[in-house]
Amino acid sequence: MKIVQKINDKAPSYGSIPFWSWNDKLESEELRRQIRRMKELGMNGFFMHARGGLETEYLSDDWFDCVKACVDEAKKLGMEAWSYDENGWPSGFAGGKLLNDKKNFAIGLLTEEVSVFPDDEDTVAAYIKNNDGGYDWVTAPVEGCENYLRIYRQYDSSYVDTLDGDITREFIKLTHEEYKKICGDDFGGAMPGFFTDEPQYFRWGHTYSNTLPKIFKETYGYEIFTGLPAIFEKDVPNGDTFRYDYYKLIHELFINNWVKVVYDWCKENGVQLTGHAVEESSLGGQMMCIGGVMPFYEYEDIPGIDYLGRGIADDIAPKQLGSACAQLGKKKALSEMFGCCGWDVSPTELKRITDVQYANGVNLMCQHLYPYSERGQRKRDYPLHYSEHNPWQDSMIGFDWYYNRLGAALSEGEEYAPILVIHPIHGAYMRYKKGSDWLNEIEGHFFGLSRLLGHNQVPYHYGDENMMKKMASVEGDKIRVGRCVYDTVIVPFTYSLDSETCEMLKEYIANGGKIWLYKDAPENIDGRKADLSWLKPNIEWEEILAKRDIRISLNGENVSALRKMTRKLEDGSSLVYIANVTDEELINVKVGIPEAKNVAEIDLETMNVIPVHGEICEKCGGRIVYLNFENAQSHLLIVNSTENDLSLADGKPETVNEFIPVPDTAVFAEKPVNMLTFDIASLSKNGVDFDEPLSIYGIKDNLFREKYSGKAWIKYTFTTDENFVAKDLRFVLEPMNQQSVTVNGIEITANENDWWFDRAFKVYDITKA
Predict the structure, then answer these.
(1) Are residues 609 and 727 located together in one domain of the fold?
(2) Domain count, the chain
(3) For residue 508, which phi and psi values (nearest 5 degrees)?
(4) For the packed helices 396-409 and 2-10, what is the interaxial angle rounded to 10 degrees?
(5) Most exposed residue of 58, 211, 640, 671, measured as fewest CB within 10 angstroms of its CB?
(6) C-alpha pair distances (Å), 227 with each of 127, 130, 224, 233, 258
(7) Whether 507 and 559 share a structural domain
């Protein structure tokens, strides 16, 4: 079957690209060895990621020697050696170089009440309370006034002002241009480009920039200082309107002065940009850091998200990503995933985490994390880790190739998504304040609509109003956004729509376009009170459900545990991916596919095309198939392929309810080495008197608090049965800059040719100690 061959051919290029944590003193040969191992695992490349624990100086000659070695090795193996653009995160401070000058610092705003008029350099503006419940901006002391509201700057010495494009250009000069000098002809080739990680504006309070007053006045025609109290107090007169103007401008400045500047430089210099913003999965998170994530994706070659933890989140983050990629025509959509899942996460849980994202638009995996070293604190760097330190790393080969193939499959054709949901982020501008409950109402409805659509397998995309302003148009009774055309629009609960959106909707409705309102219509346009009585639904919820290309049910009920994506292929066939994103077992799920002439399944492990159980559906003129879903199981169906000569298997798939005998050919794994971890010890500062046993972390914390700088003795104690005879007893120790190691008073030395778990962990033979 041609589609199978196409998926197989493309699968390597959709191979995962892990975060490769450069977190120690780097050695070129060890870096090359680790790259070869990644290739064996089915990975397509790596992100060279400076991270906590790094002992090679960032952006030094030694650093770039390592970069060149990795680019060379990747080139030999047909892999991609991507650069990560920062030493840590968020991106933008050039490993600290830009933090040497206070004028580059990120800025937030704080308030306080003072009795004397403030005129210091950190004060932004001063106000006195008026009789209307608001504040009057004053620029000089007011006679008799003893109570001023002072709004002043709070500087963040750990990050930069991302609303200032000059600072962004300096970041590029210190980082990207250095890579260009070093990589030579491989710049844009074996080193394809840069990963940018969590750039953001000031997130710890109320964002500000010294560039704002001038640009605000030019944009809106009034002084920013007249309204600043509204970002602190909800009910001041015209507060909603000011907040709308303020946060819309901050968002646009961030996009245009940070990510667009970096992207434009990358385009001009022949490299790609990938990475992700931050806090993409909610309105409050986006407001805190970026003011709307979807426009960020316009300025990436491979747009991306971050998906942390082992829980299954709402569909919002991957759906926003998938929507923008479809509209922009960007075939690859990346997710940095698995960070913070913990050392005890199971492969089954990882599959659920991946499936919910792939069913919503992701098709490229960035595993977090693949560490160079695990010594010391490094092993606690937001695990699980996917390097050789993972005891089941060999099993990741099958896992990786499964998603290489699935990513390739879900990049084929175009996603079936006839419904456009206007994204409500601009409504959130009117009510945002960090740390408050002002967004609870709109946030609750945002999640509610996402769940209603996702749990019912309704195919849709989000439409960001800023993107629509540039990319959208009315085509008869349809709306086009970039490369996607929608015949149905959903207006969510929101406080405001942009004027350009309203004009487009009026034309669309007048042409007979279908529209449904999740709740009541908003009451504002561009953050200002307006008459939207014309905005009424002309279809019911049942007509939204009717837009589904397949119908999924179990015992006559909807199956909220399943997520689905359909890809329409050029030859008229379709790929349908259905994933169980829960730990539930779902037996004999009924999948109705109208107008289907044939249906089969592509087994992503073997890439064989296999029959599915089902029957002809006379009513819908198609097929009904029955699928079983175990915990985290998924199915990839091929529908209406002209090459499919497989008949439906009769009846429903069988379930196994009895034990299967173990075949004689089965081979059982050897038991692992019996190990005991020493993480409780006693501390002495003189080698004679020892404290009570305490965790190593407790000892470390106590020494830090005391600012202790002398010698220390650490004693680990364990007891054995009196009949215990050691035949092969070994002790493993991480590097500790120790002067000596003794067991039962006998000094021992490490076998320099032996190691365990990490090549830095030395092994001591203590059998005779």
Answers:
(1) no
(2) 3
(3) -60, -45
(4) 120
(5) 671
(6) 10, 13, 6, 11, 26
(7) no
Contact (Cβ atoms closer than 8 angstroms) between residue 158 and residue 99: yes
Query: Could you tell me the two tokens for 229?
Result: 């109290």
Neighbouring CB atoms inside 10 A of 120's CB total 8
Claim to verify: residue 589 and residue 524 sit in the same structural domain: no
Residues contacting 416, CB < 8 A, separation 6+: 459, 549, 566, 567, 568, 574
**Domain end (from 497, 517, 545):** 545
For 518, the domain range is: 416-545
Same domain? For 506 and 562 the reply is no
* pLDDT tens-digit readout, 138-155: 999 999 999 999 999 999
- One domain, residues 713 and 732: yes
Q: What is the CATH number of the domain that holds 615?
A: 2.60.40.1180
Q: What are phi and psi of 628, to 5 degrees?
A: -100, 140
Single residue among 517, 545, 573 that ends a domain in this structure: 545
What pTM does this model have?
A: 0.95
Q: Does one domain contain both 606 and 711?
A: no
Q: What is the mean pLDDT of residues 503-511?
A: 99
| pLDDT computed for residue 470 by the predictor | 97
Residues 443, 529 within the same domain: yes
Q: What is the DSSP letter of 391?
A: T
Written in H, E and C, the secondary structure of 601-659 is EECCCCCCEECCEEEEECCCCEEEEEEEECCCCEEEEEECCCCCCCCCECCCCCCCCCC
Percent of the chain predicted with pLDDT > 90: 89
736 Cβ neighbours under 8 A, 6+ residues apart: none
Considering only CA atoms, which of 635, 665, 679, 673 is closest in space to residue 653? 635
- The DSSP call for residue 769 is -
Residues 627 and 621: their CA atoms lie apart, in Å, by 20
Query: What does the block give as tokens for 485?
Result: 């055309």
444-469 as b/e, with b when 16 or more CB fall inside 10 Å? Answer: ebbeebbeebbebbbbbbbbbbbbbe
- Quick check: helix, strand or coil at residue 376? helix
Sheet with 460-463: list strands edge to edge: 460-463, 419-422, 488-491, 514-517
3-state DSSP assignment of residue 244: helix
Sign of CA dihedral 169, 170, 176, 181: positive
- Tens of pLDDT along 26-81? 999 999 999 999 999 999 999 999 999 999 999 999 999 999 999 999 999 999 99
